[in-house]
Write a structure and sequence with these properties.
The protein contains seven helices and no strands. It is mainly α. It has one domain: Up-down Bundle (Four Helix Bundle (Hemerythrin (Met), subunit A)), CATH 1.20.120. Helix 4 runs antiparallel to helix 5 and helix 5 packs antiparallel against helix 6. The longest helix is centred in the last third of the chain and has 32 residues. The relative contact order is 0.16. This is Probable cytochrome c oxidase subunit 3.
Length: about 200
């Protein structure tokens, strides 16, 4: 019995969350965004005044609020997963997951208000190079948020079922990893586009 405990601890340390195919998807996504970040930085270096003037028109408060929204949502998803693992399906895991989804959906609302403000001011992706990259980066990220919310909603039946299988745990864990990647991307996009001069 004593020897099985260290073995279980070692297996937990070596455990890679989700399926291997998921990590291919995540790394491919991160590579695409990484390339976009590099292109954005190069263009900003070529037109520093235009980018600085355009950046000043962004609403930093909405960007900061969205950062807090995604961080809070990610923490709730972690708690939901831990609850599912330790206690199994039940009301607590379901409430934590639903709260994470609901808070994550607030990101979409804030981003829609932010876009509406830009369009009302006559600012579109055709305005200049800065706003082209602004809409490409934030729009592509928003698409990832919407996909992530859909995936998280698909987890709700797992938290409400009578029991949970190892395959369902792996799906939940992998979905959480995707959501954390979405969070990580925003943590890079927000300072890069909204703050860094």
């Amino acid at each position: 019995m004593a020897s099985s405990r260290p073995q279980a601890d070692e297996e937990r340390r070596q455990h890679i969350p989700g399926e291997p195919g998921l990590w291919v998807l995540l790394f491919a996504d991160l590579t695409v965004f990484g390339a976009l970040f590099i292109v954005y930085l190069v263009k900003r270096g070529q037109e520093p005044e235009l980018f600085a003037e355009s950046q000043a028109l962004l609403n930093r408060n909405s960007g900061a609020i969205n950062t807090l929204i995604l961080l809070t949502s990610s923490v709730l998803i972690v708690f939901a997963f831990q609850t599912l693992q330790s206690r199994g399906p039940g009301a607590l895991a379901s409430r934590l997951l639903f709260s994470g989804i609901l808070i994550g959906a607030c990101f979409v609302v804030v981003k829609a208000i932010e876009y509406q403000e830009k369009f009302a001011a006559g600012i579109t992706w055709n305005t200049n190079n800065f706003f082209m990259y602004y809409f490409v980066l934030t729009g592509l990220h928003l698409a990832h948020v919407l996909v992530g919310l859909g995936v998280l909603m698909a987890l709700l039946p797992i938290t409400r079922g009578p029991s949970v299988t190892s395959q369902q745990v792996a799906f939940f864990e992998g979905s959480g990893c995707f959501w954390h990647m979405v969070d990580l991307l925003w943590i890079v996009i927000f300072p890069l586009v909204f703050l860094v001069r």
